[in-house]
Amino acid sequence: MFRLKWLVVMVGALLLSSCAWFPSVKEPPYQLVKTWGGKGGTPGLFNEPTGVAVSKSEVFVSDSRNGRIQVFDLDGNFQRLLGDAGTGKLERPMNLVVANGELYVADYFNDVIQVYTRQGQFVRAIGKPGAGPGEFNAPGGVAVASNGDLFIADFYNQRIQQLDAKGGFIRQWGTSGETGVWAGEFNYPTDVAIAPDGTRYVADGYNDRVQVFSPNGDFSHKWGGPLAMNIFGSFNGWFATVTGLSVGPQGNIFVADFYNDRVQKFTPEGKFLNAFGIPAQGPTHTAIAVAVTEDGTVFVADYANHQIQKWQPSE
Amino acid sequence: MGVNKLILLTTITLLWNASLLAAGTQYNLRVDGLSCPFCAYGIEKKLIRTEGVESVAFDLEKGLVIVKVEEGVALTEGQLKQLVDDAGFTLRSVSEQPL
Question: Looking at this predicted complex, what is its ipTM?
Answer without folding.
Answer: 0.89
